[in-house]
User: Fold this.
Amino acid sequence: MADALTNSVASSMSGKSNTALDQVENAYRQTQQYRLDALTTKQNTLQNNQKFYNNLLSQLNTVISNIDTFTAQNASNNFVTRGVTSSDATVMTATTTSDAAVAVNQIKVDRLATNDNLISKRLKLTDKFLSIGTQTFKIKVGTNSFDVSVDLTADMSNEDALKAIAKSINTAVTTTTNSVSTTYASASFVKDTLSSGRLTISSISTGSTNAISFEDSPLLAELGITNSSVNSSSSTRKLATTLDAGYKTTDSANLDSKLNVNGIEVFRDTNTVSDVLSGITLTLLKPQLESDIPITMTTSIDVAAVTNFVKPMLDHYNSLLNFVKSNTSSTRGDTAVNSLFSRLRSITSTAITPQNGGTMKYLSEMGIKVASDGTVSVADSAVLKTALEKNPLDVANLFTGPDGFASQLNSIVSSLTGDGGIIKSKTLALGNQINLSSKQTVSVQKSIDQQAAALRKQYTATLQTYLKAQGQYQTLLGTTSSTQTSSTG
Assistant:
């Protein structure tokens, strides 16, 4: 009877007891949460600092890669720049190197260089080609000679023969040297009417130095191509007609481009002329009419090229400066990194030693402005142009000299990077601290869990004792009540 009452009381209070257990455990955990919060805060701080140093290293490596551009051999040549403009870019364009003189040239394009074209006579397509068997002949492109061999059968029509000849020529005029193929000419079968066709042989490169010639042979004779009929080696080559063989250009000298440069006639075998004006390459696009005025080709200091050359360096410097300035909280206690901002800013106000008779000492002398926040930019193109016109190597020294901007920047950042640099040792130390903090968090959490489990067990035992006593009390009350009822009756 007593056990039944005890079980009944325990069952009725089980829901309340579980809630109480949870409350006891949660209350304990809340008293210990400060320990976990402190470790979490510490770990977040360490991770943020590690992220800062990793990002700083990335910034520094970017700067270093750009510094290499300014410390490379002949880096100063990037400050000796020239730009060129054409008064009519549809007729002629140009590019320049640092060797070009600052000048204005008048150029008239009288003729473009062209490819040579040798054309056979017209043949009726369905007629039988008479030269059969293995036919050989020699084609020349300039001083290059090629032996051509083609197999022709008795049943071949003129159309079949012309196609086979073109294919054999194309194979013969391609040479390979050191795995590099060069093709000197191109042969094609051209169907000029519905019933006739012709063979064309064209030089790949332009100019008289690539004029096409040949040695007489029975096969070429059947095509109407003989030295006596087309005068291949003379200045009065025969002009191809609708029916007869000949050349597209009668005088091979007219295959060359012709231009007038400042009143001087110039002939070249190409339309890309790089040896007429020092440092200037002309690209001829179309000939002018006799009545057209010459093209004005103006060569000047290319200020934009110098600006574009130094801009990436200045941008990376600015980015590094701003990054360090906006993350000062991460550098507390690190003297080398904490002083980085002031060291970077000092570069722009430090005098640079002139070289080779130069006089410039400060970046401001080439038009670079230092803003109030320390960032720099090429702000005055006119000042830069004047400096480049006076002495481009003096301008170059401000960046590429022994104690120039790039060298000073390199001396600041190099001590922080690399295997022996401060940043690597710092990130390794932070990594070790983060690992230790993680282990401490696991250990504290385990300790809290164990203590919470012990408290839960202790509370459960106390509750069971209470429930047992409660059951006994209920039994006693029941017995007393029964005795009183019996006495009354």
